[in-house]
Structures are given as structure tokens and as C-alpha cells.
Amino acid sequence: MMTTRACLTAHLLTICVDLGAFPNYGSGGGVRGGLEAPQGPPSFMVFLRPAISFPIRHQSHAQSHLKQILGEELNSIQAAGTWKNERIITSMQGVTITAEGSQGELLNFCANNYLGLSSHPEIIEASQKALKEFGAGLSSVRFICGTQSLHKELESKVAQFHGRSDAILYPSCFDANAGLFEALVTPDDAIISDELNHASIIDGIRLCKGKKLRYKHRDMVDLDLKLQEVKDARLKFIVTDGVFSMDGNVAPLPDICKLAEKYEALTIVDEAHATGFFGRTGRGTEEFFNMPGKVDIINSTLGKALGGASGGYTTGPSEVVQLLRQRGRPYLFSNALPPPVVAAGIKALDILMSSSKLLEAVMANTRQFRDGMSKAGFTIGGENHPICPVMLGDAKLANTFADKMLKKGIYVIGFSYPVVPKGKARIRVQLSAAHSPKDIDKAITAFVDIGKQLSVI
């Protein structure tokens, strides 16, 4: 007699054979051939071998309808020229990379690797050490069994770096924005957001129950009018990017804070494209305007200048952080950041707080690129920031320009609608502390050559 486990094994094997997982099984016996399945505990690993593929035997009418609808949508994206291809990088992230389909090394001018820390040897060493000591991951959310001493150390360093009372970590800055507004803003409150804020801010605000308004980009007259509309709200929040990622321009923080004081509003600033490299010591937009501590709540990321691995955070009053630990859904229902990522963030902050060398390098590189491109006749958007949009206007021109740059060994990306407004397509160049003056000269030379070919300059 077959045991219960053996019967189960035979039944599962029969199903796999019927699905075609073992095409040669059964011709000489096996389950269908009348042989009894082996006795004893079954080994289910045979069903999990990566080489096994199960052919799709059935497709429902609903699924066919879905595929038709999505196919039409995908075709429209391609027809609009806004299809996004993912170039496969075959090296570490750095100022020089290799990629599939390209010969030789490419100079990378499109990463958020502002301080060049993504492949910094000290960052890698810290991550490797944490991997051995603390493991690959926690398999838990923070409040169950997902908080290690590393997490508390990084939260403390983040708060110290920004001069705040406390900080809370998230898997990404997108999660930080998704969690903040829903937990903090009630139906009695109002939130007013710059119209060009990052998608994560927009989506986070959609989740909250307060009154939602948008003000024109960096327009303080319009912000004043919007604040008048909600002057009777229990709490009023003004939300802005510190630096806007597509344009490289800076929020008028002094004017925003004056209006916040006038209407007793609170300020929230996303510093993803400022933390670590903007301002005299890399403290961001507040420091750029010499007004430390004026912003009420800061959201930012570990995934750009601070090592580039992953992770986001909120820092501000301890009461805000404690509420987020109790009610922030992305925090409560997401796995804790992996120890190697946390260790990378700690080391990045240690490097940043011990020396201004990298910060000085990225700003010197920014000046060199902006000056050289402007003298060559290009229009460069934004302000004195490592995000340097080379304005081209036409979407097809931007894509063609980027393709020709790649052939010259310069990796940049063209951006067009809907990522940026219609008629304002551009190539967004991002400078890093790891770029050498020679790298920047090579990029400028390539821009000039192609700019002349395409009658841009």
C-alpha cells in the first residue's frame, strides 16, 4: 500500500506530466505506466527546478480582452515616441560603465550618483561587512523583528545630519512620501503642493483625506492665494521639492517660509536632489539659502548621493516620527531595509560629515560643464546645480541627439512629454564628483560636434 505522502507525490507528478513538465516521463512506465511511486518522504525539489517550464494551455476570454486593451495602450506609447527602453548595464555604477549593445566603456552623465559613492570602496566594504555580520535581510517589518542596531544608528545619523529630533527609514523616498501625507493630513487639514512636484509627492497627497490644492510652479503670488483659500483649516501644509529633478531649479524657500509664517502653515520639503551635495556642507536647500532649521519636515533618499543603493527617510519633530511609526502604512507593512543597504548609508554620511572634498568636486564639475556649454551656445536650464538640462525643445531631436552621443561614448538620456512639458524636451546631464575635468571636456566636445550636425548651435 502506498503511504499518504507517496500518493500525494504520485498525484503531483501526474499533474506535472499532464502539463508537459516531463515530456519523456511515462513512456517506459512511471505513474501512467502503472509503476508504483517510490515509498518514503517525497522530494518536492524536482518540481522546483529552474529548467522546468510549464506551457500555457489556457487563456480566458477576460485575459484575451485585457491583452487587447493593453496592447493598444502600449502601441500608443510607442507611436507617441515616449517608449522607455531599459539599457542593460554590465558593470558597477560609476562615471565609466559598460552596457549591452555598446562597444567599450561609456562615460555616464545620467546617474543620480552625485558624490560618486555608488561604487566607492569604503561603501562597498561597509556593505560587505554588514552582510557577513547582520545577514542579507530581516524577513520582517520593523515592529515585529526587523529592527537592528544598524537601523537605529542610521536613523540617529540622519537626524543629526539634518539637525532634527528624530528620523524614520523607509524602503524608498517614494514610500516616505506615500506614508507621510496619509498619516499626517486629516479631513480638517489642507495641503498645498507645487504643480511640478515629484510623482511620489503627487501620489502621496492623493492618499490623504485633507483638502488638496496646487500652486503654479514657484509662483509665490499663487501660493499666497491658495493659502487664503484654506486659512480656516486646522493644519496647513506647504509641500515642495527642494530642487526639481527635471529642471535643476530651486524652490524659493525663503519666500515659502515667509508665507508659511504669515498663514501659520507648516513646510515639507523633499530633498532627494539636494541631500549630501547641495548647500555649503551638503545639508540641502535650507543651507543653500542659509536658513538652517526653517523647514518643519524633510523627506529625502539614500538612493541618490548617499551611496545610491536604496532607502528613504522622513526627519523632523519626534512627535511626527513617532506617529509615522504607529500609522505609516509603507513603514508598517514593508520589510526593513537590508543591513548592507543600511551600512552603506551610515558610511556615506560618515564620509560626508568628515570631509567636504566630494562636495567641492561636484560643484567644481558643475561650474565647468555649465560654463563650457553656455559658451558653446547651448541653453542650459536650472540654476547652479549638478542637474544641467540641455534644452532642445523637440522630442525627436532630443532622442536623436542622445543616440548620437552614445555613439561617441557619452551616455545621456533625452526627456520629453509627458515627463516634461510639451515643447520643452531636453537632455538631462547630471554631474558627479567622480567625473574628471577631462571627462567633462570630452562630453562638451561631443555635445558641440553633434549640436553643429543637428543645427542646434
Automatic annotation (TrEMBL):
InterPro entries: 2am3keto_CoA_ligase, Aminotrans_II_pyridoxalP_BS, Aminotransferase_I/II_large, AON_synthase_class-II, PyrdxlP-dep_Trfase, PyrdxlP-dep_Trfase_major, PyrdxlP-dep_Trfase_small. One of its GO terms (cellular component) is mitochondrion. Pfam families: Aminotran_1_2. It is an enzyme of class 2 (transferase). It catalyses: glycine + acetyl-CoA = (2S)-2-amino-3-oxobutanoate + CoA. GO terms for molecular function: glycine C-acetyltransferase activity; pyridoxal phosphate binding. It comes from Timema californicum (California timema). Residues 1-28 form the signal peptide. Residues 106-446 form the Aminotransferase class I/classII large domain. Belongs to the class-II pyridoxal-phosphate-dependent aminotransferase family. Its EC number is 2.3.1.29. This is 2-amino-3-ketobutyrate coenzyme A ligase, mitochondrial. Keywords: Acyltransferase, Pyridoxal phosphate, Signal, Transferase. GO terms for biological process: L-threonine catabolic process.
